[in-house]
Every structure is written in structure tokens, then in C-alpha cells.
Design brief:
This protein has 582 residues and is of the alpha+beta class. It has a seven-stranded mixed sheet, sandwiched between helices. The longest helix is centred in the C-terminal third of the chain and has 23 residues. The chain starts with 10 loop residues before the first strand and ends with a helix.
Length: 582
């Protein structure tokens, strides 16, 4: 408490510094202030408790902004009269208390604010007050949500100006130009996907938690080493079938500019009907598959059986129809209900052996990994969300470009390890050549037919993964072929380097934007926030416990006519009596 003691003659830089100091002292020492006079040249206050003699007076020095304490009377005799709340602990004061903490941790929760204030000052503030302070603090640091929407058109122009070839478009609705949708895909991401990534795109969405309700949609892929590669993202006012159709339409436009023919892509999602229908309309040559991680989470939630999840993954990775049916039979044996539940998901959309096309070993979406990039920024204005993604993309591109510069292998590390393992197995096989392209490969427990012309093996591994299996490698080595030449291009280090070849250029901060104010003042250029707004404060969900639910409802009683069902003020008896008297 010594830090909050005052003495006559004590000097403060200005009136604001003095007011903050006296407020801090009142809160820390648990006494309420009664301000008698406070303006730019003087301050006079006393303890609000009746009978307490403590008073303070401070004035501004002539020809300076400095404030000085002129008199300090009495000592507190009131005791701790502000234990629970405190009138001086305003929202603005809480903002000043949490500002540095918010800069370090955007996810600084209201309950943590309550805890820290109680720990340091010993007072308890309402949850709603802490929530409002956090919202106001974020606005002070990062700008308001309204400003974020207002500046979106200018920000999109800056993205396209600094990163040529990028797509950044904002869409509005209604006569008042309300925000509806935003689509962003940086040219470096488009180039990297087209020239180096697997032809696989994961789709998903996550709710944003800013002042106005909106949903973040994203499309990601995999680089040659299996790493996350963000391709495009969007913010929509409402997530529905229409918004997914729009998102995939914008994605198609962004890709077709850089690809000569209509791309054949494998899309991974949670199987939401709107997404599946949109894929069929916008990418007719492409195929869709269920994300296995999502499917396993669903069956886990539905049946709570760890063995079922294990068997489901075994069935998904099975490379022969016999092995798949064997695992499905085990699932039915373990839980007939689960086997019946799985029938709603066609095996062709989740099982490797039934899928038409090459999955390159990727059965699960990586959307959740990308969502982690913005988890901390979900409460920020929309522009800050984009800046966070741009910053992370820049770091990832630079790091992976530098990392791959020292790679000497033909394939990316994860693929190279698979190849080396297969080569070791192949050294123990016997190879019988049938003709120029067909071979019989005999191992200890089986015999497989390999056709290097069609790049196929009877074990199906080569077709399903895109990397020659051990049987194919044995056949290729026997005829002195380069096993790497028979590997899908998207596994190579060259493809990995092409993925991160383009640089992401910095997008200037808003203070550096050269905006035409006459354009910004025009209503056509102004983007207003969406109509759907998150209610202020903590959501007030009405919880009804069992006791409340079973309790008899309160019966109102009229004191005039002694009847139930209404009050005295709404009693009709008096009105009837008045009519009769009239």
C-alpha cells in the first residue's frame, strides 16, 4: 500500500496522471471517493464514508501542466468500505489495467480479468463489466469492428496492388451496402497449389467471435511433404448452401485463370450436403471424400467404443476388398448398430480401396490445423484476421523455402522414407519377367503381378498412394529402371520448391494506404457491418433446474375483487361498477 500513499507537495505530470493515481489509491486501499470539485485546474475530494476525515486537494501550477497536492487532511477511519465492487473501477479503468495483457494475449478471458483484479486489488467486479472492458480494449488496440468493414474495399485493393495476381473481393447486399461476403486467395498460394501441391483440397468452416456474427470458410491442400498449404479463405455473414456454392465458384474462378483445363481435384470435407452439391456444380470433373478424422469422431461420439474407431481406420486403409470386408465384418460383430449406422456413408467416399482415383495417402482433412492459425484472432475485426493469416503464410513460405534449399534427395523427406523402406523390402523378393512391362513378384507369403506400363500392382498400393510399392520397386530394379521416375511428381523436392517459389509481399498498414477520401465518402464505397450482431455481454441463457421446473407457478391475486388471474390495476370490476352507477 506504500505505493499509493500521498504527501503534500507531491507532483504529477498533468491532471490525468493525478486522477489516475487517486483512482488507483482508492481502489487499492478500498475506500470510495466523493469528488467535490474536478476540472482542468483543481481537484478536491474526500472519503465517501460518513464521519471519515480524509480529504485531498490538488491544483495546477501556473504556466505548466503539472499538478501538485496542496493539502492532505486526516487519515482513514472508515475501514475497508469497498470490498465487493468499487465505483472507481469503471470500464475505462479496467481497460487501462488489461491493455498490455491483451496485447500479449488476445484470448485473455473475462474470467481471468476478474481473477487478476481480485488478486491485485481485492475487489470483485461484474462479469459483464469485464467483458465490455475486453471488447473496448481490443477496439482500442486493433480498431473497431465497424472500421474493419468500412476499410475492407481499400484493404482488398492493397492486397491486389502489393501481391499481383491475388484475388481479394468484398461483396455487399441491400441498398445500405451491408457486408455479405469476402473472398481472398493470395497469388503465392494459387501458384503453389497449381504447380506443386497434391490435387487435394480440404474444405471447412469455423465461427468467428467478433462483434458481428460471421463464419470463416477455408480451402487448404497438402505440399509434397504432407504439410498444410492454405489455398483460399472467405468470411460470410451466414454459412449455408448458397454461401458454399459461392465460395467454390470464387475458388474455381481463381484457379481457372492459372490452369488451362478444368482441374480434377479430390475434395475432403465433413460431408455437409451444401458442400457436396456445390462441388458437383462447380467442379463436375472432381470427386468428393469424407474426412476420416471427422467420420471417426462421429462414430466415437455416437457409440463410445475405442475398438470401433480402430477397426474403422483399418477398413479405411485396407488396400484389398477382402481386407475391407473382413474389417467391416469385425465392426458388425462388435456393434451391429454401428455397422448399420455406417451404411449412410458410401465406402466409395471414405474407404481407400473403393475410391475412384489416387488419394496419395491423405484420408483426413487438415482444416482444423489451419483453423488454429486464427483461433486467437477470432474476436478481432475482419482485417486483423486477414493480417494474421498473411503473417503466418509469410513465415511458413520463408521457413519452408529455406528448409528445402538444403534437401539433396529426389523426394520430399516423408516420401523418401517410404521409398527407402520399400526398397529394403524389395531386396528380398524374387522377380519373374513376363514381357516388357509385366512381372510376377514373389515374396515369402504372396505373389503379386506388377505392370510398370500402367503403373499398377495387384496389391493396389502403387495406384492408391502414387509411390511404387515394394513389389513394383523389385520389378523396376530387375529391369534397371529408375524407381523415382515412376513416382508421382507431387512427391518430389522439385514440386515442394515450386510450391513455395512465389513470395508473399507485405501489405501496408492502414496508415500507409493512399485512399481517395472523396471515394471513401461516397456511400457506394462504404461497407457497413452485417445486420446480425452478437448480443453485448455474456449470453444470458435462461437455465431451468428441476426444482424450478416442478415448482407451481405464482398465482396473482386482485385486492379489489378478491379474484385470481389479474391485479388491482387491471381489475374490470371497478369499470363495471362505474358503468352501472352511470
Amino acid at each position: 500500500m506504500e505505493d499509493y500513499n500521498f504527501v503534500v507537495g507531491q507532483i504529477f505530470p498533468d491532471v490525468k496522471a493525478f486522477r489516475n493515481a487517486i483512482k488507483e489509491a482508492a481502489i487499492a486501499q478500498h475506500f470510495e471517493l466523493r469528488i467535490i470539485k474536478s476540472d482542468l485546474i483543481r481537484y478536491f475530494a474526500k472519503c465517501a464514508s460518513d464521519g471519515c476525515p480524509w480529504r485531498i486537494r490538488a491544483v495546477k501550477l501556473p504556466n505548466a501542466s503539472t499538478f501538485i497536492i496542496r493539502s492532505l487532511e486526516g487519515t482513514h477511519t472508515c475501514g475497508r468500505n469497498a470490498l465487493n465492487g468499487h465505483h472507481q473501477a469503471s470500464v475505462d479503468w479496467i481497460v487501462s489495467f488489461i491493455e498490455e495483457r491483451l496485447r500479449d494475449n488476445i484470448n485473455y478471458k473475462p474470467k481471468d480479468i476478474l481473477h487478476d483484479i481480485h488478486k491485485q486489488y481485492g475487489i470483485t467486479i461484474p462479469y459483464k463489466q469485464a467483458w465490455r472492458a475486453k471488447e473496448r480494449g481490443l477496439a482500442a488496440i486493433y480498431g473497431s469492428s465497424e472500421e474493419g468493414f468500412y476499410l475492407l474495399p481499400s484493404y482488398c485493393e492493397e492486397i491486389k496492388k502489393t501481391n499481383p495476381g491475388s484475388v481479394a473481393e468484398v461483396f455487399t447486399t441491400g441498398a445500405d451496402n451491408r457486408f455479405q461476403r469476402l473472398f481472398v486467395s493470395f497469388y503465392a498460394s494459387i501458384h503453389g497449389f497449381v504447380n506443386g501441391c497434391f490435387p487435394i483440397v480440404s474444405l471447412g468452416g469455423i465461427q468467428l467471435k467478433s462483434k458481428y456474427l460471421s463464419t470463416f470458410l477455408s480451402a487448404t491442400s497438402f505440399d509434397a511433404d504432407g504439410g498444410l498449404f492454405p489455398l483460399a479463405f472467405a468470411v460470410v455473414d451466414v454459412e449455408n448452401d448458397e454461401s458454399w456454392t459461392w465460395f467454390l465458384s470464387e475458388l474455381h474462378k481463381a484457379l481457372e485463370v492459372n490452369i488451362e483445363c478444368n482441374p480434377e481435384i479430390i475434395f475432403l470435407s465433413d460431408g455437409q450436403k451444401g458442400i457436396v452439391d456445390a462441388i458437383r456444380r462447380k467442379f463436375p470433373k472432381s470427386s468428393h471424400a469424407f474426412c476420416m478424422r471427422h467420420l471417426s469422431e462421429c462414430i466415437s461420439k455416437e457409440f463410445k467404443n475405442a475398438r470401433l474407431i480402430h477397426l474403422l481406420w483399418k477398413a479405411a486403409y485396407a488396400t484389398t476388398i477382402t481386407a475391407f470386408k473382413e474389417k467391416m465384418a469385425q465392426i458388425e460383430e462388435a456393434s451391429p448398430e454401428a455397422a448399420k449406422w455406417l451404411q449412410q456413408f458410401p465406402p466409395s467416399q471414405w474407404a481407400l480401396v473403393y475410391f475412384e482415383g489416387t488419394r496419395y495417402g491423405h484420408l483426413s482433412s487438415n482444416i482444423e490445423e489451419f483453423n488454429k492459425w486464427i483461433l486467437e484472432a477470432r474476436e478481432l475485426p475482419i482485417i486483423q484476421v486477414i493480417e494474421r493469416i498473411h503473417g503466418n503464410l509469410t513465415i511458413v513460405f520463408d521457413d519452408r523455402r529455406l528448409k528445402s534449399s538444403s534437401w539433396c534427395s529426389v523426394l520430399a523427406p516423408s516420401a523418401e522414407r517410404r521409398m527407402v523402406e520399400a526398397i529394403n523390402y524389395a531386396s528380398t523378393y524374387q522377380v519373374l519377367r513376363s514381357d516388357e512391362v509385366e512381372f510376377e513378384v514373389i515374396s515369402a507369403d504372396r505373389s503379386d503381378i506388377v505392370n510398370i506400363g500402367s503403373r499398377s500392382c495387384s496389391c493396389l498400393d502403387w495406384q492408391l498412394y502414387g509411390i511404387p510399392c515394394s513389389h513394383a520397386i523389385a520389378a523396376l530394379i530387375s529391369c534397371r529402371k529408375d524407381v523415382y521416375a515412376y513416382t508421382a511428381k507431387c512427391f518430389t523436392v522439385a514440386s515442394y520448391k515450386d510450391t513455395y517459389a512465389e513470395e508473399l509481399h507485405p501489405v501496408p498498414r492502414k496508415l500507409e494506404w493512399r485512399t481517395d477520401e472523396s471515394v471513401l465518402d461516397n456511400d457506394i464505397a462504404v461497407v457497413r457491418p452485417p445486420k446480425f450482431r452478437r448480443p453485448p455481454g455474456r449470453p444470458e441463457n435462461k437455465r431451468i433446474c428441476v426444482e424450478d421446473h416442478n415448482r407451481d407457478k405464482h398465482t396473482v391475486h386482485c385486492s379489489r375483487c378478491n379474484q385470481t388471474g389479474h391485479y388491482k390495476t387491471t381489475c374490470k370490476a371497478e369499470m363495471i361498477n362505474s358503468i352501472e352507477q352511470f
